[in-house]
Design a protein that fits this description.
single chain, about 80% helix, 14 helices, mainly alpha, about 325 residues, L-PG_synthase/AglD
């Protein structure tokens, strides 16, 4: 007995192809939905930022020296190249440099909807996985890059702080501020340790980063590219801020701007606000005031134009790169 009419092998193959095609179509539709939702969030945040008069950088451009804005924009572009090197340098496998650069641009676009640069990390992990690298190893490479970037950030912070003679003891918060900071750190630590799923996830990332690093020790050239790339990302951001400060006639030295940028970016990234909008601007302006002794109001247009060059302008190429990689199924 048979449960239905017999089908020819050709018909069975056709049915299977139609079934796979249906799954593919559903996957494509889901990616389009995700893209549209992300675009809607980005458009909403951009419009919200523009409608807030105090956060609109366009009027500040009228008072800026355009000559100094050129190196600011170029530094932002070179920072993208540095991020590309930072990604491929911590991946022992061969990765397309062109698509890696497009992934970094896509990260600019996705970061607007995510706090603390989580969007770039997610995009890089997805890109590496789509490039044929196992998911765990992709996560390990991205985590290793972030760990190295954090270490370099701290070393540069101490180095530039020593250069300008920063008094670390005098700048430490006291009283209620110190207590609140300690409680926040304790709460974060308690969550990381107390939530089993999060604790296992963090432990797994650390375990995976170790073997990945040992593997890269046998490829010192790649490891050097990754470290130099991470260093370039930070220094190009500092150069962009320094150029913006000169565009408004500020005479602060490069080490002072570097120290303020390193402190401000760290504080701004720690606040869970999508794209660091508002939080990063305020933290950077306040850090510049403390470091240079110049009123924060003087630094507001500098920070707004700096954010325009390094955050808002890259959104357009980032959006194009994001759509291109999705169309090519590289994300």
């Amino acid at each position: 007995m048979t449960s239905g009419p017999d089908l020819a092998p050709e018909e069975v193959a056709a049915d299977a192809q139609r079934g796979n095609g249906g799954g593919l179509v559903r996957g494509m539709r889901m990616r389009r939905v995700v893209t549209l939702v992300l675009c809607a969030i980005v458009v909403y945040v951009v419009l919200l930022q523009i409608l807030r008069h105090n956060a609109n950088p366009l009027p500040a451009l009228e008072r800026a020296n355009a000559v100094w804005l050129v190196p600011a924009v170029l530094s932002s572009a070179l920072g993208s190249l540095g991020a590309t090197c930072a990604l491929v340098g911590f991946v022992p496998e061969r990765v397309s440099l062109t698509r890696a650069l497009l992934a970094q641009l896509s990260g600019f676009f996705v970061n607007l909807a995510t706090p603390g640069g989580l969007g770039s990390a997610a995009v890089n992990t997805r890109f590496l996985a789509r490039s044929g690298i196992p998911q765990t190893q992709a996560l390990a490479s991205v985590a290793l890059g972030q760990i190295v970037g954090f270490v370099l950030h701290v070393l540069l912070l101490v180095g530039f702080g020593t250069w300008i003679g920063a008094d670390y003891a005098a700048s430490l918060p006291t009283g209620a501020t110190l207590l609140i900071s300690a409680l926040c750190l304790a709460a974060v630590f308690a969550v990381c340790v107390g939530v089993p799923r999060l604790r296992r996830w963090l432990a797994a990332r650390l375990r995976e980063a170790g073997p990945r690093f040992r593997e890269l020790l046998h490829q010192p050239g790649k490891l050097t590219v990754g470290v130099v790339g991470q260093l370039a990302v930070t220094l190009m951001a500092v150069t962009a801020l320094y150029s913006c400060s000169r565009a408004f006639g500020q005479t602060a030295t490069f080490p002072e701007i570097a120290f303020a940028q390193l402190v401000g970016s760290a504080v701004g990234s720690a606040i869970p606000v999508p794209g660091g909008i508002g939080s990063s601007d305020a933290a950077l302006a306040y850090s510049l005031r403390v470091t240079t002794g110049v009123a924060a109001a003087t630094w507001v247009p500098v920070v707004l134009v700096y954010r325009l060059c390094t955050f808002w302008l890259p959104l357009i190429p980032g959006w194009i790169a994001f759509l291109y990689l999705q169309r090519r199924e590289a994300l």
